[in-house]
């Protein structure tokens, strides 16, 4: 089920938005390309977006480590074509590179940068692992602590690239460790650190462990937090099972404790709202989601809202604004 439509209209339509996390793909029976994204954006003041890797348009031949560069080549065409539109799609591109190559990942990073033509900003190498969850890329346990992974991670700083961390909440201490080892590399934690089943009854233990991890990350100035992703079924809210799309009022009430905790710990200058579309589309519409975010911070100042909805993301991803 996908919640493509909503009876809600966008609120606070003058509030400028950078959506720092979405995907694009064209797969049999499952298409999410610029047209679909712009249909979702309709009426929301989204001026720019950041594309995040999703195994889309990889090269079909050549060295295996270079295959992800095809995704950057593909997205660069979209980024260039939409540059003059109201919504600059893929103003930033985050691709994949196998960091376990160690120092040998450098040519892959160089290829991404060349293919991105100014739009390429960083790498996401999924490290998500949990004994009870089958995750994207099926990463091995403890990947961020692996010496070869850290050798590859060290290359990011040399090229001025950021790292998107996709993991689950029990792995937050690993992010803390790698952020301490590489204090000059920007680390952006996706989906508030992947709290599994946080929306399910009896979640007190999950909440406590997740909060501890977020509080530890808050001490590290090179770490940013993306506020979003709770529409993923793994989070346990079960919105994806609804016959009708959940509205922004209910979403805001459910999401607020977690997003406000991140803001309290890290501040508005290190937090950014994200859509995670089309993944979160199974649970709610794009408009209901952004309306919910606006409800959550309705009492914040104009400057604080500007940071959360646009400025923090633009700074973290070094986007060209104007």
Verbal overview:
The chain has 322 residues and is α/β, with parallel strands linked by helices. It is 35% helix and 15% strand. It has one domain (17-316): Alpha-Beta Barrel (TIM Barrel), CATH 3.20.20.140. The strands form two sheets. An eight-stranded parallel β-sheet has the order 1-4-5-6-7-8-9-10. A two-stranded antiparallel ribbon has the order 2-3. The protein is globular and about 50 Å long. The model has no long low-confidence stretch (mean pLDDT 95).
Classify the beta-strand content into a percent band: 5-15%
Strands, total number: 10
Helix content: 25-40%
**Series of H and E elements:** EEEHEHEHEHEHEHEHEHH
Q: Which sequence of strands runs across the widest sheet? A: 1-4-5-6-7-8-9-10
- Residue windows where pLDDT falls under 50 for at least 5 positions: none
- From the N-terminal CA to the C-terminal CA, the straight-line distance is 38 Å
List the total number of helices: 9
Remind me, CATH topology? TIM Barrel
Main sheet record: 8 strands, parallel
Number of separate domains:
1
User: Which secondary-structure class do the elements indicate?
Assistant: alpha/beta
What is the overall silhouette?
globular
Mean pLDDT across all amino acids: 95
Q: What is the CA-based Rg, rounded?
A: 18 Å
State the CATH superfamily name: Metal-dependent hydrolases
Q: Report the top-level CATH class.
A: Alpha Beta
Provide the CATH architecture.
Alpha-Beta Barrel
What is this structure, in a nutshell?
The protein is an alpha/beta fold and 322 residues long.
List the helices and strands and how they pair.
Elements: E1 17-22, E2 25-27, E3 30-32, H1 34-41, E4 46-52, H2 69-81, E5 88-95, H3 106-116, E6 120-124, H4 147-158, E7 162-165, H5 172-181, E8 187-189, H6 204-217, E9 223-227, H7 248-266, E10 271-273, H8 286-296, H9 302-316
Parallel strand pairs: 1-4, 4-5, 5-6, 6-7, 7-8, 8-9, 9-10
Antiparallel strand pairs: 2-3
Helix pairs in contact: 2-3, 5-6, 6-7, 7-8
